Amino acid sequence: MDYNKLAELLYPNVQHDMQYYLNVYPARKLPAGAEVTRLGPSPTGYLHIGHLYSAMISRITATKTHGVFYLRLEDTDQKRYIPGAGDVAYDMLCYYGVKPDEGYRGDNLEQIGEYGDYVQSHRTEIYQTFAKELVKRGRAFPCFCGANDSKEDILERREKELSESETITEHDEHCRNLSFEQIKANIEAGKPWALKLLSTGDPEKQHDFVDLIKGKRVIRENGKDIVLVKSNGIPPYALAHVVDDTLMGTTIVVRGEEWYPSVAAHIETFLALGLKPPKYAHTPVISKLDDGNKRKLSKRKDPEADVRFYIEQGYPKEAVKEYVLNLLNSDFEMWRNQNPLSDIAEFPFSIKKIGSNNPMFDFEKLNNISKNIISRWPAERVFAEIYAWAEKFDGKYANLLQNNKETMIKMLSIDRGGDRPRKDIFAWSMVKDLYDYIFNDIAPATIDERINKNSAKDFLKEYIEKYDHKLDKQAWFDQIKQIALGHNFADNKEYKANPSAYAGNVADACNLVRVAVTGKTATPDLCSIMQLLGKDKVKNRLQNMINSL
User: Fold this and answer.
1) Helix (H) or strand (E) holding 312
2) Has domain 294-351+362-375 been given CATH number 1.10.1160?
3) Which helix (H) or strand (E) covers residue 546, if one does?
4) Under 8 Å CB-to-CB from 167, ≥6 apart: which residues?
5) Which of 259, 320, 487, 541 could make an S-S bridge to 459, C-beta 3.0–4.6 Å?
6) 306/487 Cα distance (integer angstroms)
7) How many CB atoms are located within 10 Å of the residue 274 CB?
8) What pLDDT, on the 0 to 100 scale, is given for residue 503?
């Protein structure tokens, strides 16, 4: 077949050749060893936590090597396109401190960089030029089956082939064997067609492939005639990836492990065009336990898959980034313990240290990281963060905070700083309920079931009579301790044997006061809270507890 003639038949309006675009997009002028990385989300929904995971690898790698990290919008799947999703992707990357150096910046902002357009749907002419080149080289053919043949038609044809030859080869496409005349007749008849790679690979042959994360791996040659251009003229990822990562100078493609089965087909497409494939880093997939079974974190099932979830819940972005680094490099936690005040940019991150197993998403770990970060912040900053969150998600609470700013900052100052700072906050959304006793009346709380109610009532009566709001912390504690000595809250034998030496009774006494005054079983320093609440409010709440027993 005359492949040049076929190429003109299929793409009569393509004016340039592949070399033209290779000249338009020259090699980047970067220092030796510089890596060019990218993120290519599809605007079909929100930005997944897995995208942030990959983006942080790409961003850090580009920064450490004095390279470039760019954002490309891969919007070739127009059926699933969601307006505004691209803007969300860019905004979230910037919010989490993973801002691209160049590329797409949202639908209403001008792109930055000399290697665009960075929106794939704007690059159709370029893709068709490379598609035409593949046809010229005899490495691609038009397929009329997908648009016209039903699944039953295809199965029937394959059954016929089996009955005649007793086998179907890997390259079993009917259309790869059409003559020029048959192709021309189909096109003149208006039959839609897709362009497919004419694979020359042998799936029985294997070769080594080096993955930057998982090391040396063995893959089989590609044996599938993959779709390069759909019947609507738009390429799927297979061709778009090859063309764009070549022209934009990508040196490392960071993507999820789910793409690994496609490596052989992508490499064959690069080589069919005479192009050098980039290096690949296939990341483990973030997973979670579901009824005891491990599965991928799902866009449909898991709200935490959406990076906006953490903003809505009020997790500091610093905590989310540190958590992702924990997932990426297992030695991050040790480094953080040794460098509690260092910026995470100082962490010696390495792609080679990314584990091969799928990391498990763990809220408890995220919460602990967040608590540690917040515990190091001054009260004024914590208040500002809580208020900013409330302004966006809880206007009524924002007004309450604004009207009681001084009181709230004093509350947040309790037990802050020092060697053992308070660690009771991991998300701003929890603060409203955590400290509701500061602003709101509280209902009498239930005391520990092991505590004798009569003993508790007698203790609180004595305590309310002797309560002195002017006592400092040590005198305040000594007073509770002294009163507690006369009350056996849990009919404890150790107390009966030696009341003055039984420490548990004092702890029970403090907890009774805590529950009465705050309605909580755990709070920051109770004496400081009582000072903040004021004498009248404290005595009223103590009396309410007495009345409820």
Assistant:
1) helix 308-313
2) yes
3) helix 535-548
4) none
5) 487
6) 53
7) 9
8) 73
pLDDT at 156: 52
Q: Whats the size of the chain, residue-wise? A: 549
Instruction: Report residue 9 as tokens.
Output: 């038949």
User: Which residue, 435, 451, 433, is CA-closest to 507?
Assistant: 451
> Fold for domain 21-120+233-283?
Rossmann fold (3.40.50)
| pLDDT-wise least confident of 238-252, 264-278, 285-299, 329-343 | 285-299
Tokens at residue 469, please?
């709001």
Q: Which residues pair with 333 in a beta bridge?
A: none
Helix (H, G, I), strand (E, B) or coil at 529: helix
pTM tops 0.85, yes or no: yes
- Distinct helix (H) and strand (E) counts, the chain: 25, 12
Cis peptide before 415 (omega within 30 of 0): no
Residues in contact with 139: Cβ distance below 8 Å, sequence separation at least 6, in sequence order: 197, 198, 200, 272
* 8 Å CB contact between 256 and 282: yes
Distance, CA of 11 to CA of 466 (rounded, Å): 94
User: What letter represents residue 479's amino acid?
Assistant: Q
**Using alpha carbons only, how large is the chain's radius of gyration in Å?**
33
Summarize pLDDT for 453-495 with one digit per residue, the tens.
Answer: 999 999 999 999 999 999 999 999 999 999 998 888 877 777 7
Q: Under CATH, what is the fold of the domain 441-548?
A: Arc Repressor Mutant, subunit A (1.10.10)
Residues in Cβ contact with 20 at an 8 Å cutoff, skipping those fewer than 6 apart: 129
Query: Of 45 and 531, which is predicted with more confidence?
Result: 531
CA 545, CA 541: separation in Å to the nearest integer? 6
Block residue for tokens 């958590």: 323
As a whole number of Å, the end-to-end CA separation of the chain is 96
**Among all chains, which residue has been given the structure tokens 């990508």?**
250
Q: What is the pLDDT of residues 327-364, one digit of tens each?
A: 999 999 999 999 999 999 999 999 999 988 899 999 99
